[in-house]
Amino acid sequence: MRDEYSKGARELGKPSTHRIRISSALIALLILTLVTLLPFTQKSAIDRVQQCSIDTIQRDTSFLHDAHPITSHEFIDRRNKLAKALAASGVDGFVLEPGYTFEYYGNISQTSWEPWEPEERPFLMIVEPRVEDGGQIHAKTSFLSPKFEEGRVRMLGIPSEHSLNIVTWEEHWNPYQTLKQGLFSHTKDPIIMVDEEMRDFIVRGLSSNGFSTVGLDMEIEALRQTKSAAEIEILRAVNTGTVEAVRAVRSCLLPGLTEDEVVTVLDQTLLSIGFSLFFNLVLFEENAALPHGGFVTGDKVLEQDTMVLIDVGAHYLGYSSDICRSFFIPPPKPSRIGALLTFLASGWSPLHKTGFRLHQEKLKVWQLVLDAQTSAAQRFTPESRAKDVDIAARTVITQAGYGPMFTHRVGHGIGIKAHEAPYLHQGNNQMLRAGMTFTNEPGVYLVGRFGIRHEDVFLVKEDGPPEILSGRRAIGPYDP
Ligand SMILES: *[C@@H]1O[C@H](CO)[C@@H](O)[C@H](O)[C@H]1NC(C)=O
To answer: Which parts pass through the membrane (predicted)?
Structure first.
């Protein structure tokens, strides 16, 4: 009995100790959860902005649809066009090292050939013009390579109709003599054109071993400056997508974020659409009064009336974007009390008055820079010289009294590199041609106050107005 009673009591008591255990376990769990979540609640503001921005851009990525990788056929075609221009220039060959030009003609960048550091052993591409039976000129492409690298060169996947013609040199040979004997033994005093990226020791090596070397001429440069239909579609995709990324970021921005935090959000937004990162300048207010920022930017905190300048470039399918937007973040949805307080404050605050004047000047300069960009865009025709585009923008800004604050050229060519010739400055007399692509990026910089720049990318057409390759231009500081 007793035993049974006490057993029953023990069993009765069991659930209550269980309850205590369960509730203390719950409390422990709760504390643990809070402790674990604490850093996340601090992080969550930027995470929410991040997620908002990625969700926004993912809603419509149709800007990517018409961009396709450059085909093998197009690479071969580029070398054939080069060969025709070389023949017209009266040179025996064109020689280049891995770099941007090699990327254009052979799909190999400097880093994909030299992942470690620039090599002291010359690896060169040589393009010679050859006359076919029908009188057509085509490119004979060859390579000069260290003997032990021959296998690697063949594995690079350089687009070619035939297996690669590779002249090899052993470590203890003179590579320039090897090149001369291997490719130019029947050419008396061969003249070769060297690419602008060629390192000096190689140029000197060539010229002290029987080659006459000459620099690039205008017709050779014009080949890469004049974009093909495929290049135009890639440039349109990467530049439009970069503008859309800035817009997506902007629509999610809140006061309190720093410049560096906005950089992170923009980087992640660009990565989410398959772009690779290149450069990303986020400058608030007076930090944007130096066109490329300074070394001390990053910590400035975003406020409601901050003039934000974002200049950003990304890469997609080997081509570069370079665009800039200047804007205010979206205004807060006003609560009635907030609106009343703002109204009351506006009556007497002297601070508000200077704030008002600053705001008005931002609006005025914003529109002025847009007008300058419009004026410059009208000069993107084959009848213009490079300088005409710059002067068109500069005239608008100078007439408004801000001339000295427009401190840089109005733009530059853009392609595989963000900055390519021709450069649009007051001193450049080069004629524009249909197919050239340029940035158009006037700016006004008020030291200690703010800076504004609008940058879009334009294509020069044979007839009529230029085509914009960065989607649509800015409309206002609240709709950049
Ligand atoms: C060019 O190189 C890229 C990247 O290395 C590669 O994805 C692409 O297939 C190459 N194109 C051709 C035509 O070989």
So the answer is: 20-40
Q: Cβ distance 394 to 424 under 8 Å?
A: no
Measured by CA distance, the residue closest to atom 10 of ligand 1 is 107
Find all residues with CB under 8 Å of 383, minimum gap 6, and list them.
none
CATH number belonging to domain 227-468: 3.90.230.10
**Residues 6 or more apart in contact with residue 416 via CB below 8 angstroms:** 100, 103, 104, 318, 319, 320
Which residues on neighbouring strands pair with residue 457, listed in sequence order?
Answer: 439
DSSP 8-state assignment for residue 139: E
Q: Please give the C-alpha separations between residue 57 and each of 52, 144, 211, 302, 308, in angstroms, as whole numbers.
A: 9, 46, 54, 22, 20
Q: Cα of 78 to ligand 1 centre, how many Å?
A: 15
- How does pLDDT run across 12-21, given as a tens digit for each residue? 445 455 666 7
Name the closest-CA residue to atom 8, ligand 1.
69
Q: Taking a C-beta distance cutoff of 8 angstroms, is the pair 289, 451 a contact?
A: yes
Residue 72 in contact with ligand 1 by CB distance below 6 A = yes
pLDDT one-digit tens code per residue, 286-300: 999 999 888 777 999
Phi, then psi, of 7 in degrees rounded to 5: -65, -45
159 lines ligand 1 (CB under 6 A): yes
User: Listing from the earlier edge strand, what are the strands of the sheet with 212-214?
Assistant: 165-169, 137-146, 124-131, 93-96, 191-194, 212-214
- Decide if pLDDT at 336 tops 70: no
Contact 412, 430 (CB under 8 A): no
Domain ranges of the chain: 72-225, 227-468
Residue nearest to atom 13 of ligand 1 (CA): 72
Strands 450-453 and 456-459, sheet pairing: unpaired
Distance of CA 164 to the CA centre of its chain: 33
60 CA distance to ligand 1 middle (Å):
27
pLDDT above 70 coverage of the chain, percent? 90
Using the mean position of ligand 1's atoms as its centre, give its distance from the Cα of residue 107 in Å: 6
The DSSP result for 325-353, as a single string, is EEEPPPPPPPPHHHHHHHHHHHHH-HHHH
pTM metric for this prediction = 0.89
Residue closest via CA to ligand 1's atom 3 equals: 107
Q: How far is the CA of 151 from the centre of ligand 1 (A)?
A: 18
DSSP 3-state of 241: helix
Is 69 near ligand 1, meaning CB less than 6 Å away? yes
Q: Are 131 and 137 in contact (CB under 8 A)?
A: yes
Q: How large a percentage of the chain has pLDDT more than 90?
A: 83
Predicted pLDDT of residue 8: 43
Ligand 1 atom index nearest CA of 74: 13
Q: 72-225 adopts what CATH topology?
A: Creatine Amidinohydrolase; Chain A, domain 1 (3.40.350)
